[in-house]
Amino acid sequence: MDGVDRVDGIRTVEADGGDAFEALCVVREVLDEQGWHVGVAGAQPDVWPSGMARDQGGGLTAYRWGIEGVVGVVDTFAAVPAQSTVTVADQKRETERLFAEIERANAGSAN
Length: 111
Description:
- The strands form 2 sheets. A 3-stranded antiparallel sheet has the order 3-4-5. It has a two-stranded antiparallel ribbon with strand order 1-2.
- It is elongated.
- It is 38% helix and 23% strand.
- It has one domain.
- The chain has helices at residues 20-32, 51-57, 88-109, and strands at 3-7, 10-14, 47-48, 61-66, 69-75.
- It contains 3 helices and 5 strands, in the order E-E-H-E-H-E-E-H.
- The longest helix is centred in the last third of the chain and has 22 residues, at 88-109.
- By secondary structure, the chain is an alpha+beta fold.
């Protein structure tokens, strides 16, 4: 169940998802509304898992993307400075922008 609960005076957020990355995104969306950022690599703007990574690895690893394509692999839950992370909406926008750049570059190299 997704939601925010208080346990012994501590606020908790829980989420289910099809994989670990999806569950992380659901938790982050709740926290985004409160202005909180989770300091994990899976919350950085240039990180997004492939479908295969999600299917075969449960979303525990993800790709770091650049305009040239995949530039690295990260542990979704590796600790990073919270200042290097963004909201889920911003992360989706950035990865969509990167994917479009990659597609344009690939189309240009095919000519």
